[in-house]
Design brief:
This is 3-methyladenine DNA glycosylase. With 271 residues, the protein is mainly α. The chain has helices at residues 2-13, 23-26, 32-35, 69-91, 102-106, 126-135, 144-147, 167-170, 176-188, 195-214, 233-269, and strands at 45-46, 58-61, 64-67. It has a 3-stranded antiparallel beta sheet. Strand 2 (58-61) and strand 3 form a beta hairpin.
Length: 271
């Protein structure tokens, strides 16, 4: 993970913002030091590992140190149940690929330049051109944590009005943000989530974030990110193709996270 955490820490020391990669460490709250820390997951016994007893939800046994499933379950049962329900529902649905990343455009719609979230970076089409793309497009974002950042004028233009309460009903596997959020669900279940799974989810989130911002209205060419111009047929085709590939890549990670939830929640039925 240091190929991600190292550059992030260096930028932080320089007080240098990065509109693509910062998201993975600011919007998501998992600190770099925790991303670098290894956890084996449930059912593994570590020999000569007394240092793990300093972390929450570990216990000593005659054979070594292992995850204290009962302790973890007592504190995280509701989270486990929610994550299992959300990811299982998402797995049951086909991927929808027609959003074309317009959520990022809706987040700057009709804003003054100083109000734009990443205002250090120019809009490729300018403010008027960006607004014109929003007004000529069908916006259909079903992800609440993207929709809640829409500007007020953009909200009525969305074909859906997602809420936190209907998140389980709306989440679908083609959504870039739903696939980035696998990282969030993985670290929220730490230390029950094996660290290789946390790392796989983080790497997926990093790759998805690149497309998320390449398809955004920002001009990030100076950072080496060429645009995916979703205002054109060619750009929309590229976006949908890459979106479908991420949806396919995310499915086994989603399944592995469901398995983690199930393996811990099974203890409930054995009480």
């Amino acid at each position: 993970m240091r190929r991600f955490t190292g550059p992030h820490q260096e930028r932080k020391l320089r007080k240098e913002k990065h509109p693509v990669m910062d998201f993975l460490f600011t919007y998501y709250s998992h600190r770099p030091v925790r991303l670098e820390r290894w956890h084996p997951g449930p059912g593994i016994v570590l020999e000569d590992a007394a240092e793990y007893l300093e972390f929450p939800h570990y216990k000593d046994t005659p054979d070594g140190v292992t995850l204290d499933v009962e302790s973890f379950l007592a504190q995280r049962e509701k989270t486990l149940e929610f994550v299992q329900a959300l990811l299982t529902a998402t797995l049951s649905r086909p991927a929808r690929l027609g959003c074309f990343g317009l959520h990022e455009w809706a987040m700057v719609y009709r804003q003054q330049p100083e109000e734009v979230r990443h205002n250090a970076w120019p809009l490729r089409l300018g403010s008027d051109g960006t607004d014109a793309v929003v007004e000529s497009s069908r916006i259909q974002c079903g992800h609440f944590d993207a929709f809640r950042f829409f500007t007020q004028p953009a909200r009525p233009r969305n074909t859906l009005q997602p809420t936190r309460e209907d998140q389980v009903a709306n989440e679908q596997p083609g959504c870039l943000h739903a696939n980035m959020d696998l990282f969030k669900w993985a670290y929220k279940l730490e230390p029950a989530t094996p660290s290789d799974l946390v790392a796989d989810c983080f790497e997926l989130a990093a790759d998805v974030r690149e497309l998320d911002m390449q398809a955004s209205p920002y001009d990030l060419a100076k950072l080496g990110y060429g645009p995916v111009p979703i205002e054109t047929p060619e750009g929309r085709s590229e976006y949908a193709r890459r979106q479908a590939a991420f949806a396919e890549r995310a499915q086994p990670l989603r399944e592995r996270l469901v398995f983690v939830c199930q393996s811990i929640l099974t203890v409930t039925s054995l009480r």
